[in-house]
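Thread: phosphoenolpyruvate complex, take 2
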Amino acid sequence: VKISKSYKLASRDFHPDDTVIEVKGVKMGGKHLVIMGGPCAVESPEQIDEIARLVKAAGGQVLRGGAFKPRTGPYSFQGIGVEGLVMMAEAGKKHGLLTITEVMTPEYVDVCAEYADILQVGTRNMQNFDLLRKLGTIKTPVLLKRGFSATYDEFLNAAEYILAGGNPNVMLCERGIRTFETYTRNTLDLAAIPVLQQLSHLPVISDPSHGTGRRELVEPMAKASVAAGANGLIIEMHTDPDNSMTGDGVQSLFPDQFAKLLKELEQLGNLV
Ligand code: PEP
Ligand code: MN
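Output below.
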């Protein structure tokens, strides 16, 4: 199918080889399967340290955790802010993991980049063009999440903003889209994985946690994502999901489930 493309730098026509992003020896993109795991939100030094230990022990490479949380309602917990960045950086360093955290405004890009190895743009900010432009001015890798109602073309144009600004280190993240179905929180669009890889050279990461909103669906959809060719997974895991500070405990894996999944993915990796 021929579609008119308004993006250029994000396109595979422009850049035929897969982009591989390397940070401190960890490769993301191409044949490498990167695993990012951790809580929805950084809550305390003890919480993030213990989860980092478990992510590392299970074989993950990147610790996820939000210090700034984009909550749907203004009265919900908004994240602990810069203190959380410091806690996560310490945990990442101690356990030998890269870190990824969400940045919501251009003003906070520099401080987030000072403490984290990868910056996440959330689904609600995919078309926050001032934020995208600011992220184009640095070289820190960016995980750009697909807007929950964004077409592939809109998604790739959002990536184009960052690339056009001069930052080539962009990863695309499918995290589920809004459909008529309400059983799941979002509908994880598995076809997005091969489609984006055909249209673009950028790594494609799948988020089966936000993509389903249900813990029991994370394992099958993580495996399906890998079978569909995902370059990596970002998965929520918590030591005490029932008491997590965001509502995302219901989609967070327990540590033993996370470890089991990674072990099984390793075996699946040999098959696909
Ligand atoms: C998150 O990763 O915790 C998050 C808020 O993700 P999304 O932007 O995909 O909802
Ligand atoms: Mn979350």
